[in-house]
Amino acid sequence: MSNRLKDEHSPYLQQHADNPVDWYPWGEEAFEKARKENKAIFLSIGYSSCHWCHVMEHESFENKATAKLLNKHFIAIKVDREERPDIDRHFQAVYQLMNGRGGGWPTSIFLTQELKPFYSATYIPPEPKYGMMSFPSLIEVIADKYKNEKKLLTQKADEILRFLNPKEDKIQATKLDNSIITRISNHAKELFDTEHGGFNKAPKFPQSSTLSLLLDVYKLTGNKETLNMALFTLSAMAKGGLRDLIEGGFCRYATDDAWLVPHFEKMTYDNALLSDVYLQAYHASANTFYKDVAFETLDFMLKKMSQDGLFYSASDADTEGEEGKYFVYSYDKALRSFEKVGIPKKSHASLAKALHITKEGNFEGKNIIRVDDSSHIEIPYYKEALQSLLKRREKRTYPFIDKKVIVSWNAMMIVSLFKASRVDKKYLPLAIQSLDALLQSMYIHSELFHSTLLGKKPKIKAFLEDYAYLSEALIEAYKSTLNEVYLITATKLVNNAIEKYFEKGKWKFSRGEFETNADIYDSSYPSSVATILSALYSVSSLVDVVYKKFVFKTLEIYSYDVMRQPLSTPRMSKMVLRYLKDDIIIKAREDKLKPYIKELDTLPHPFSLLKSDTNDGYMLCNSNSCFGHEKDFNGVLSILEKRQ
User: Fold this and answer.
1) Does domain 185-240+250-317+402-434 have CATH number 3.40.50.150?
2) How confident is the model at residue 614 (pLDDT cuts 50, 70, 90)?
3) Nearest residue to 49 via CA among 242, 316, 312, 254
4) Considering the chain, what is the average pLDDT of its residues?
């Protein structure tokens, strides 16, 4: 018998519609029932491609005895965190405050009937383990305490909410200056994994905004260390595991230091942001390998994760209840695949070794395909081997795809498509088609929505991230097409964002039913605050300089946090670099001239760097003439070298 989730659009909620738990969607019907029956609320937040969400569902929510306990003592509410990021953000902050560490999914929160949180956890096992009591035992303990000690629980909940929403918000401002460059570089070197790349230990996330920041530093200063850290990491991530060498696309994160064993779900935002940063690496290095990875990633998303120009949100890690089953291979079946496409038997052993295919396996007795150096493939029959393994996959059940359309994530993909179109024109009509489809389906009568199931009318209104990322996509569209309609729409959206979410230099993530603050830290993807600032800065350059005041005010308020730990807020740090761009370029050129100071002093007229009136470059000049603009700067330096 279905519960109240059967009529919901969210595929994640639909997955729970046949649970014996009497689930409610978030809403007044559930709240009213809790008040009427004097029951606490059990809130479970997850998403369709979350492995541990599936585990807890199978162990607890599909268990009739556990469901009976839950139904007896609580009103149970299910939330899709992708559909309602405002609710998720609030309760992730609650979890962190209660537990002193970041949360995750599934998120399990117990609330009073007045929606005040008093207990929080993530995954809860069905039997006592991991230092936790079993979920059935926990249900009974909390139910008893709510019945007999409700006043105390409510007091604790009020205390949590006071800490979560302090009345006084002290602001520390500091000067934004070029020292941020040194701080970024030094912080990155301290955290950098010199063996495998990346900036943390397992679990390892791609951190695309950090890599993009390092590439920006290189572009502005010529700092080879930041370039090398970024390129080394991007090459390491592409070896196989985190990146799917068979079909393309990146998984969400790796469970090991070497990027080999991922959680196998593929998220639209990861693949959008990574294709973007691989393109950035291609422009910085001129190495076509990075361009090829970017294009492969985009092509995967277009083939497997889109329909009618719109992109699905995610594909699952599990197939038929087993994590990674679709993606991995046994030794014997892999070699049988090689044989079927005509690869000579004498080459099988060496080919298997090159692809890290062994009898023991590198993942639970099976094999994740991987190479030692993805940028220089010199493996006989490599393409034929991958094709044979793809054919084997095609006989398997493809992981579940959540066909929810999320505006912000689609906009990220569209930005990458427009950037790709400047390298290969074939992506331009695809980018335009996607943007127009997104606007048509999600921007209705000048009202922007957040998400919907493909083909359904949207119900959930947009959040700051949707305005921010869609504005960026429209600006990229204008840059690529010079169609002023895109720029006009972007301007309209940033105006709406200011009106809805801007408050004395700070930004709200959501308003209305569930108000949450936007923050500057990049989590799964870049901060919506930094992204709206980027859009505003572009509009200030293209439309009206007045928009820059909103950028400066926000940067000023968060200046202390960004300048103190710029790698903790990489997208905001990128905005500071953009804001200081002219000063950074001048300083970098001055540093390059330092070895030639004596040479300059011996000339009749001292030389200096002057900004060109006719372009965005800088000229090396004396009082009589200029040697050239930015493009000629290295040539000028070579002349000075010869004079020494």
Assistant:
1) no
2) very low
3) 316
4) 91
